[in-house]
Records
---
Amino acid sequence: MQKSQSQKPSKGNTIPQAFNDLVRSLLSLLVKLYQDFPALVVIIIFVLFISVYLLLRAINSDYIYSLSVTFLFMFLSLGLYFKEKSFLSAIVAFSLGIFTAFTVTWNGSTFSIFVFSFFPLSVILLFFEFIRPAANVEEKLTRAANFYISDFATNKKDLQEVVDIITKHKYDKGGLLSTDKVHDAMLFFAHHKVPKSRMILLITKLSYLYPVTKVDAESLLLLLNNVNYVSQTEEDLTTNVKALEHCFFKARSTPSSLVKLLNEALPIAIENEIDFVLFTNTILTYLARGYAQTSIIEHLSRKFTKKIP
């Protein structure tokens, strides 16, 4: 289990990985073009060098200021693109920024004013950007402590211990669950009065399942909470979360469809006190036979619902 958590999934949604993927794709494209059209590539490179030469010949001090502003807006637009994943937003932001910037005559004075206002503003915004997540997680901890198992002070201490353990585990074992999602999970399980030891196990499992399956965290939290309800003891819970992990690898279904099926089916197991491993093995059998999801629910209901004498 520990080794499984150290295997990091694709980071295609992170900015560095997206940039690396873009560079690799561009290099592959250039190699392919050179293999298929070597003469064209040579001509393009020649034209590029000529353009750079003419550009350098044309540069004066005012041009350097304008060029610096242009590159700054390019950088900001790229940042917006990687955050929003929207080509249109990045282009519009860049265009508006450039059109607005070039209504000003850029020289030493105007550029100095811009720099001495831009960088202090950036520092202030970054300060608030770092403060906001801390305030957000503190608010979630306080909300959770207000209605957890014991008094406020004890609740806050216990829940903070949960977060600290999960955070340490994340750094030690390479977990990929963000701090914000750890607190979301803590708040969710606190609402359901899940004991501290169980909560640690469930959030640890979430830190593995969420990046591997790419399923919405709220759906996974609901699923793990259902697994908790069907587990009579902590030993049962440990066994059941391992069985749940194996389901994702064995099931003939996409992770999102499997999570939806399990969330709809598990109330049957909870109400009728059915062994989780037996229950999920039955689901896997139905999936292997090609049963539709609604049909599987009906079969499970008939098979496991206790008969009233």
---
Amino acid sequence: MEPYDFLILGAGWGGLTAASLLAKAGHRVAVLEANDRAGGCGQSFSRDGFSFCAEMQYLMECGPGGVVHEWLTALDLLDKIRFNDLDPDGYDRIELPDLSFRIPHDAHRLQESLRRTFPDEATKIDDIFAVLFGIDAELDDQAFDVQHFLSNPLQFKNSVLYGPWSVKRVFNHFGLSPRLQAVLAGQCGDLGLPPGEEPFFCLKAVLFGYCHSAHFPKKGMGHFIDCVVDSIRDHGGVVHFETPVKTIEKEGDRVTRVFTTRAAFSARTII
């Protein structure tokens, strides 16, 4: 029942980010993780002396100015966690029975490559990329204001009209052929959803995010995660593994305590 400033449930990427930054800022932080290791989908495992990354293929926002780069800068970890920049001419590849399509690092280059590969659908490709670039400009992370969005929806016409639609619905609306749809939707699986369920917002985020930056940690995802966990501990935080939360206790709308199979935990703020 030792009271912490922040108690964070889950040592996935979101939990580790919050915990590491809060611990670095001097707060008393504890993390509870049900698994025997941190990282969520970024875990690694070893076999015969080799390390294998379980799920994640690469990360976005790792270059200067990116979210991951800024996070590691704040934690003073840039010297410990270094990245390989994936091939800018084809960081990913979509394989169809009669086509091998490489996805380049830049959204404009992707558009042009699609136009060359599907010349009969060049106008449709331009139309759908106009929407993609429109959403990207309307939801610029550096300038986006939620209140302005709610008060002036007509200024966000691409986001309002197409963002919540499914990827499949948008593709059908613009009349894309099945082969072109297959190439453009090839990365929908990154979010674990089929094109008929994934919001178009998400496809835009994946395509444009990786077009800005597609990197892989030089020593693997496991090394990346271990460095972040060490940073939490080095700044006075604690990480409890194999500690699943069984019960969450609330007072009104505020979570006050959580109970695990091992102990009860409380904190000023529980995330």
---
Amino acid sequence: MAKVIISTTYSDTYLYFLPITVFCWNKLNVDVICFMPSGRTTIKKDGNVLQGVYPDGNKKMYLINETIKKNKGNLSIHCFSAPEHKEATYSQLSRVFVSGIDVVDEDEVAFCSDIDMANFKLPPFDSNFDFTVLGSDLTPDTQYPVCYVSATILNWRKYFNPSGLTYQAAMDKHLGHIECEGFRGNYWSFEQELIFNTLQNAECKLLPRSNGQNQFAQNRYDRDDQFILDRLNPDTIDFHMHRPGYEEKNFEIILTILKYHFPDESFDWLISYTNAYRELL
């Protein structure tokens, strides 16, 4: 059994995708672990105060949980604490500390992925190496793409968390002492730099993925591709979905691609979910 490690904040730009991402990975028989910020006890919106933001008091999270439950989705959520201006960076970094969850099996393989990445095929994993890095040529020279770095939980722990810290303590160790203007922007690629630097001491299978012509990866639907629906192909591995996914034009593209790759699936649940999500915006 494999695990995929994703993360999100409560931003609608990302949160909306959770049921879609869980659906796609579960179709590949992969369990989903999602890191999220702990809910703040109150949040102000248009002068109103909503109590108990997460989980029971948040209508969006309730909708998401109910949608995944109806699909019999396999998802576990693990929450972390962070100052609000650091939540996005903590969220990104959380994925490399999956070994800090005390219920994971050290022999299981864990892939890192994004909340807005729909998958149709398993990323490659070579058990003869400590880590497999797909798309090693898609990032700057001092980074590895978090989608997809894969290893056993044992190796995630060996290289990223040898002291056996909780994921909260490990993230605090790396980010808790840092302060600056524009934290999110200045540390946007922190986790990819950490992955690159840490894996210099590991045996890695590096798999290039660039198409050699532009920024697009081979066998990926990219949301920046204006001709994306002309490139539907059963060999496609993944789909970097259009954001925000609930906007009508973006949603129609997402739904078309999902129907192509899952022709026997009724997506009435996704239409209903999206309509309900829009009402909560």
---
Amino acid sequence: MINRHVISGICGFIGLSLSAAGIKHLLVSNDMWSIIFPLLTFSSLIMGIALYTIKGIGGFRTSQRRFHLLRGILGFAGISFGIYGLKFLNLGLFQILVNLYPVLTLVLAVLVLKEFIGIRAWVAVGLSLAGVVFAFDPKLEGGVMVLFPLGVAVSLAGQSIIVRLRTRDTSLVWAFYTELTAAFLALLAFLAWGNGRLPFDEPFLFFGVALVDGISIFLITHAFHGDLAGKIAPLAYLSIPSGALLGLLFFGDPIHWEMLLAAALIIVGGVFALREADRVSEDTALSRGWSKALTREI
């Protein structure tokens, strides 16, 4: 049930919650474009150094340029929507809305990847969505700003499906080119709309956020690259309780009983989804085994 891809997904989604908390703090004294451009640039630099160290110059070769470009555009849109949403929304509410993304991912997995998603996985997602409903405190008003975290959800779902659709390149190559493309687009936005200042007044916080964000993006990419979307996508719900906890610790955002109930439902749903995905994998492997045996006999 638990493998390295699942562990990567868990650490990656919790890491995104931590980087979101850091970004929300940086937004207090910095322009959003002044954060997005250097954040993505530093992240892509880390990925590039890692790729060169492991694979050498040949590691940068790819035959999936159009898909890397598309994923980079989605990545830029996602982080832009995300930072704009973080600027105006409670961190817990933001994480709740962003985490509608597993549902979108599962729907796209069925429609695009033709991946079989068992009924138990849908039940698991239903449990987690019930947690989302309970955690959605009506006192947390967001207005039109709720569209921004929803935009992040669409972006994340699209990125996840692209990685599963084109598995030829390694996880690190996917993460590098996504961050590099997004960083270039962020540079153009910074030059057009930024205030010309970079967020280096708190260098320890900034580079810490950039490092955590880059590692988290790689871990999530690696998780989707190596395992079923039906197994990895529901793990994203872990960032709701972790986001609420970090909001409490760093910003004093209140945690209501609804969020505690949501956390319980989310954890139960995540475990349920993992067990279902393992069952589907075993059934598929068994079916293929019978098919090969029958072919040999014929």
